[in-house]
C-alpha cells in the first residue's frame, strides 16, 4: 500500500498529468481538484455510502451463519478485488489517477469492507469511529461556531485546527487498539 501511495503522490505532483487527472475525475462528477472534493467527498463519503448498501450477493455470504468468519472474510476480499479488477479494465487512463487509486484500494478496501460488514466487533467499532470522525470533521468545517468564515486565512486556520483534532482522535483510538 505504501508503494502505491508513493506512486500516486508522484503521479499527482507531475504537472504533465494534471490535464488527464482533471478529465478523469470530472468524468466521475468531481467538480474541483481540491482535498475536499477528491478525498473527502469522492473517495471517503462515496465509500461510506457504498458500504451502507452493499450488493445482495455480498450480504448473502456475510449473513450466512453456516460459513466460518474466515471463509466470509476471504469471500469478501475476493469480491472486492474482482470489482476493482473489473473497474481497472474499463479505465480510459490505464496509468492515471484512478489506476493509482485502485492500487491503494486493493489493499485498504477489503479490510474496511470486512470492518464494516464482517463479524469482528472490535474492527467494526474502529471503522465506525473513523467514519464518525470523518463526518464530524465535515460538519465542523461548515459550522459557524467552529470555523470563522470572515477571511480565507481564518477559515484555513480553523479547518486545520478541526482536522488536527479529528486526526488526533483517530490516532489515539488506533494506538489504544494496537
From TrEMBL:
It is found in: Mitochondrion outer membrane. It comes from Rhynchophorus ferrugineus. It holds the Pfam family Miga. This is Uncharacterized protein. Its main location: mitochondrion. Belongs to the mitoguardin family. The keyword ATP-binding does not apply. InterPro entries: Miga. One of its GO terms (cellular component) is mitochondrial outer membrane. GO terms for biological process: mitochondrial fusion. It comes from the Eukaryota. The keyword Secreted does not apply. Keywords: Membrane, Mitochondrion, Mitochondrion outer membrane, Transmembrane, Transmembrane helix.
Amino acid at each position: 500500500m505504501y508503494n502505491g501511495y508513493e506512486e500516486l503522490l508522484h503521479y499527482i505532483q507531475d504537472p504533465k498529468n494534471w490535464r488527464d487527472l482533471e478529465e478523469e475525475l470530472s468524468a466521475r462528477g468531481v467538480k474541483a481538484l481540491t482535498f475536499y472534493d477528491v478525498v473527502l467527498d469522492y473517495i471517503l463519503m462515496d465509500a461510506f455510502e457504498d458500504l451502507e448498501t452493499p450488493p445482495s450477493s455480498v450480504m448473502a455470504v456475510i449473513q450466512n451463519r453456516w460459513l466460518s468468519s474466515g471463509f466470509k472474510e476471504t469471500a469478501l476480499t475476493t469480491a472486492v478485488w474482482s470489482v476493482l479488477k473489473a473497474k481497472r479494465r474499463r479505465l480510459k487512463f490505464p496509468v492515471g489517477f484512478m489506476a493509482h487509486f485502485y492500487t491503494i484500494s486493493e489493499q485498504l478496501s477489503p479490510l474496511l469492507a470486512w470492518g464494516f460488514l464482517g463479524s469482528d466487533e472490535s474492527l467494526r467499532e474502529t471503522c465506525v469511529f473513523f467514519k464518525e470522525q470523518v463526518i464530524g470533521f465535515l460538519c465542523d468545517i461548515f459550522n459557524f461556531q467552529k470555523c470563522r468564515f470572515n477571511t480565507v486565512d481564518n477559515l484555513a486556520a480553523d479547518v486545520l485546527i478541526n482536522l488536527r483534532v479529528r486526526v488526533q482522535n483517530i490516532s489515539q483510538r488506533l494506538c489504544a487498539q494496537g
